[in-house]
């Protein structure tokens, strides 16, 4: 299965599972270790669910990337057009939740990935980009 | 199709050309079924339909129209269960137009053409009936399978006297957690078990939602006086849970189901020893 640069919609709970399966497929194809595969898959799961629950749905793009030093990795870009995150520091604080979750999803995803980028504007939406490099 | 008793060219054509139209119809439909139905079965089906169409087209027979719809519904339901595609199913109906049109054009009868147009839109309606039945039959199949899966995927088994096992496989969403929790708590009441081992070997990824569901299940069981052990924590899952910062608190976790069973046995004061020959 060649799954590269694929974009998936996130509008239901089933789509979260689909994003997870796609990330796993891309990571496995890139030759990532099982531990790192599980990490990026879990990060994808958290971010996709955030998009679905808080962002009111959006989309996820998964791509295999190579950095300047020739290192391969997997990048996931999750975008929504939701209300945005009013307080980024708070959202990245462990245990703080705006809903009924554990409040570990966003900070957890940041720690699971090697690179983490959060771009949000109130009322316009949120884009989160995470990258995991192959060790 | 009701009128036309006086100028009925089409009913006459249907009667006189019965063999030819049926054979052609059968031929067209057979192309699509690719051996999933035998020719004889198909011929019996189509002959029955043809007789009903004849009666309905002749007019004045409302019973025939109802029977025809019922017969079509039955056929589309069985097609849906046999895994035919919607268009393959609808073609079995639409093909009669093609077969009949060949007869009509052979006669070059303008009146028959005019009647054929009416017949054609009537067959289109029948096609829609098959399509709708097909869709609802497929939805029924999917609903049945989902229910079976939900039941299949959440067994609670007895591992030992007073020790229950809950092997979880696949994605753990809210609906499934609810079923797992209900089944587990019911079995706890029935058996009065002291320990429950929740095995997550078959859960591919444990994220915060799965963890939260697990914690809630353990809490509920605990309120009923049962201690839970979570087993099947593989290295990659352990590392991910640590990175996510999920705390399992004082809940016992084990790498394998065997470890968890041994732990539960030990806590229950049961000793398992190999037999020694005297």
UniProtKB/TrEMBL annotation, chain A:
UniProt domain Histidine kinase/HSP90-like ATPase: residue ranges: 35-135
Classification via InterPro entries: Anti-sigma-factor_SerPK, HATPase_C_sf, HATPase_dom
SUPFAM superfamilies according to UniProt: ATPase domain of HSP90 chaperone/DNA topoisomerase II/histidine kinase
Any one Gene Ontology molecular-function term assigned to this protein's record: protein serine/threonine kinase activity
Keywords: Kinase, Serine/threonine-protein kinase, Transferase
Keyword Transferase tagged: yes
Pfam family for this entry, one: HATPase_c_2
Signal peptide: none
Keyword S-adenosyl-L-methionine: no
UniProt cross-references to CDD domains, sorted A to Z: HATPase_RsbT-like
Protein name: Anti-sigma regulatory factor
Organism: Actinomadura logoneensis
Automatic annotation (TrEMBL), chain B:
Pfam families: RsbRD_N (PF14361), STAS (PF01740)
Signal peptide range in chain numbering: none
Residues of the STAS domain: 153-264
SUPFAM superfamilies linked to this entry: SpoIIaa-like
Residue ranges that the Swiss-Prot or TrEMBL entry lists as coiled coil: none
Keyword Endoplasmic reticulum in record: no
UniProt KW keywords: Phosphoprotein
InterPro entries: Bact_StressResp_Reg, RsbRD_N_dom, STAS_dom, STAS_dom_sf
Name of the protein: STAS domain-containing protein
Originating organism: Actinomadura logoneensis
Species lineage: Bacteria, Bacillati, Actinomycetota, Actinomycetes, Streptosporangiales
């Amino acid at each position: 299965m060649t799954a590269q640069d694929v974009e998936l919609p996130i509008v239901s709970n089933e789509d979260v599972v689909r994003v997870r399966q796609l990330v796993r497929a891309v990571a496995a194809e890139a030759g990532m270790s099982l531990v790192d595969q599980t990490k990026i898959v879990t990060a994808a799961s958290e971010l996709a669910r955030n998009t679905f629950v808080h962002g009111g749905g959006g989309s996820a793009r998964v791509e295999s990337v190579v950095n300047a030093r020739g290192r391969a990795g997997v990048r996931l870009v999750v975008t929504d057009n939701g209300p945005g995150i009013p307080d980024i520091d708070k959202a990245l604080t462990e245990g703080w939740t705006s809903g009924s979750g554990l409040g570990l999803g966003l900070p957890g995803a940041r720690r699971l990935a090697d690179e983490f980028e959060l771009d949000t504007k109130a009322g316009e939406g949120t884009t989160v980009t995470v990258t995991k490099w192959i060790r | 199709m009701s009128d036309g008793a006086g100028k009925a060219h089409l009913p006459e054509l249907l009667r006189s050309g019965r063999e030819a139209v049926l054979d052609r119809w059968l031929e067209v439909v057979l192309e699509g079924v690719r051996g999933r139905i035998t020719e004889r079965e198909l011929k019996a089906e189509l002959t029955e339909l043809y007789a009903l169409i004849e009666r309905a087209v002749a007019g004045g027979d409302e019973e025939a129209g109802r029977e025809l719809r019922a017969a079509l519904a039955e056929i589309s339901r069985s097609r849906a269960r046999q895994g035919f595609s919607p268009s393959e199913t609808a073609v079995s109906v639409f093909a009669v137009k093609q077969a009949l049109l060949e007869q009509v054009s052979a006669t070059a009868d303008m009146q028959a053409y005019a009647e054929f147009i009416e017949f054609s839109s009537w067959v289109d309606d029948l096609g829609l009936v098959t399509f709708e039945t097909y869709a609802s039959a497929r939805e029924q199949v999917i609903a049945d399978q989902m229910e079976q899966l939900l039941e299949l995927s959440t067994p609670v088994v007895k591992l030992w006297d007073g020790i229950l096992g809950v092997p979880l496989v696949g994605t753990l969403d809210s609906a499934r957690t609810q079923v797992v929790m209900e089944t587990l708590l019911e079995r706890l009441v029935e058996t009065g078990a002291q320990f429950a081992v929740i095995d997550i070997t078959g859960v591919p990824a444990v994220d915060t939602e799965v963890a939260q569901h697990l914690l809630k299940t353990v809490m509920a069981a605990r309120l009923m006086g049962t201690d839970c052990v979570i087993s099947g924590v593989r290295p990659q899952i352990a590392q991910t849970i640590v990175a996510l910062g999920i705390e399992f608190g004082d809940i016992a976790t084990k790498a394998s189901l065997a470890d968890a069973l041994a732990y539960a046995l030990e806590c229950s004061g049961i000793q398992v020893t190999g037999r020694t020959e005297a």
